[in-house]
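Researcher: Structure for this, please.
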Amino acid sequence: MKTEKTKQYDLEERTMRFASEVRTFVRLLPKSIANREDTSQVVRSSGSVGANYIEANESLSKKDFVMRIKISRKEAKETAFWLKLIDTGGNALLEEKRNALHQEARELMFILSSIMRKFES
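Model: Predicted structure, token format:
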């Protein structure tokens, strides 16, 4: 049975929420050719963070687990990159949301790096 404290740190839920928030953010952005391409990439990579984390949890070996965590971390890093490229059209609220999402991508990277280090040693 999960306690409230474990729920707070449930990475499957957190990565799902992150991908969902990225999708909500993308719907609000100004339409442009560059944004269409960049948002397509950020949607894919943000979803891949959680998908690969779930795959890691279902892995059959320690080696497979570590590889999936590495992929999840790589996708979080890629998401942070695409978020920085997205044009908010100078909208302060959108820039604030983009910065918050970028921070979450970086936090996920740090968490996944920590998990990686723990299992590689």
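Researcher: Any notable elements?
Model: The chain has five helices and no strands. Residues 92-120 form the longest helix (29 residues).
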